[in-house]
Amino acid sequence: MQASDRFNINSQLEHLQAKYVGTGHADLHRYEWAVNIQRDSYASYVGHYPILAYFALAENESIGRERYNFMQRMLLPCGPPPEREDD
Q: Which residue has the higher pLDDT, 1 or 22?
């Protein structure tokens, strides 16, 4: 791998990180990464009707109630954020 290849890969990665929120960056904490993954999962469940219907059937709830529950879980998917120590 040459230095120009490494620079090209890093610039592409920085472009993706600037364009898409969920791809992360160097200063991303573990909690923020987990929140992004959980929110993406819940958004996928709500957006795909067959998956939503499967969850509704498995939990013996209506599809509308499951959609509401998933949207409520998106607010704090991993609980309250931990306290940070600013350096």
A: 22
